Model the fold of this input.
Amino acid sequence: MFEFENALDEYLSHLRIERGGSPRTAEAYRRDLEGYLSFLDGEGVTAFDDVTRTHVAAYEKSLTEEGLAVATVRRRIAAVRGYHRFLVREGLTEHNPAESVDIPKSAERLPDVLTIEEVGEMLDAFVGERPSDLRDRALLEVLYGCGLRASEACGLNVDGVNFDDGFLRVFGKGAKERIVPIAGAAERTLSRYLAEGRPALAAKAAAPSADALAAVFLNQRGGRLGRQSVFNLTRKAGRVIGRWDLHPHTLRHSFATHMLKGGADLRVLQEILGHADMSTLQVYTHLDRTHLHEEYAHAHPRDKMDL
Done:
């Protein structure tokens, strides 16, 4: 194994000096690759040219069978592939047995969502009559009812609210403008806040700025509400239903999921959420497929038959 270990030292030096890697990164690579070389030694492999794709694939399988996280397996196989590329580049061998070995895909992390019942229970807890209470209820209804990001709700302007036609003019990422429908509870609570709550909050500003005069959601000093205030409100709302770290984006995810379950078209949802790429919505189609499977299992007459 001497030539493997000697090449490993050269590879780590390459990472530190030529690639500008940190000592910590180089040490992490050393640990990962020493495990790989130990595996090859156990397989009786002692020369670069003797390593085959089968060996690398078997090493990957052994990592999985150890119960390591997918992210850990991905990192170790990526280190192996980089090591073999280096061996070829330095002329120490002519073939790269790791080149065609697939790095395992990251486990798809589904977005956290609330149930429809949790949303109702949470929103029904905000029933105060103070100006700030009216604002908080309207803000939560709009975040969930229109699928807005926290920054989009904060940036919403009065002239962007059109109740007659039932839409909001929203500015998303990159200041890109889009039209978002508003109706039902979101429309009712926002309308009441604008009529009764916002004027009282605006009056608290001794000399309101042009930005504050334009803003829909105001803070206790009459200025435009900030994102941190939205995060704080969402956490407060989450405590009502035992969700101790509720995030505004969870309300957006919940909106998208509930819309799909209700039969919304995926392309319509893309427009509402302001996603430029349809692939961004694939996670929601997975959630919807899960829902469809549950509905099938519940409703199909032959699903419950013992054959």
Observations:
- The beta strands are 161-162, 167-171, 177-181.
